[in-house]
Amino acid sequence: MRILTGAFFFASIVFAHAQTAPLGDSAKEVLGPWEFSNADRDKACTATFKSDPTPVGFKVEFDANCGNLFPIVQRVAGWKFPDNDNLFLLDAGGRTLVEFSEVESGIYEAPTPGVGVLFLQAAIAGPPPKPPEQVTGTWAITRGGKPICTLTLAGTVLRDGFALTIQPGCEAEIARLNVAQWRLDRGELLLVPARGNPWRFEEVEGGNWRRVPESAVETLLVRQ
Fold first, then answer.
1. How would residue 128 be classed by pLDDT, with cut points 50, 70 and 90?
2. pLDDT range class, residue 23, cuts 50, 70, 90
3. CA end-to-end distance (rounded Å), the chain
4. Model confidence over 50-73: pLDDT tens digits?
5. How far is CA 115 from CA 38, 166, 182, 218, in A?
6. Alpha-carbon distance 23 to 216, whole Å?
7. Using an 8 Å Cβ cutoff, are 222 and 145 in contact?
8. What pTM was estimated for this model as a whole?
């Protein structure tokens, strides 16, 4: 009995020490808010890494909608980032749920079975988001300076954005997309089709919006 009691006491000391061990250099670099997203970034929320110890590592908080977008985060009980290793999100038993590796400075990637590829990107402070009412109105999509479609961005609220009307005469490529909604997302303007990935645009000089990623022939949204 004394042997078992002593072993338990020793294990408790080791466990407590592990939980109060200081953050390593790698872990210190990720403290603070990060964008947590899928590969297309059509699902994104904020993960905030903290130095508060938990039974399995350190505390991470996700914003209110994160659990709806990524149910796996509801099981996250902590994180760890050993020096010269990857960044791990752990469940209450200390098992790895998501394992991130750095693919470039400030961007981490995690192919995750049953979920897809997840990303962490440093949350950089920028200008306040543009209100939707500043974007509503009639716009032309141009390619290489040539108009290929005219559409109207309305302020009518739908389930996942705002209403959009495509005017007759658009090129077949645009018509096939069956774009039905638009929304603003982290400084980008998205044209959202009924199926498939949205077209993303970034604001450029002159109040126009340029499609991203860029291609050899520039595609713009130009206000009419």
1. low
2. confident
3. 84
4. 999 999 999 999 988 899 899 999
5. 9, 34, 26, 33
6. 46
7. no
8. 0.52
User: What domains, with CATH codes, occur in the chain?
Assistant: 21-122 (2.40.128.10), 132-223 (2.40.128.10)
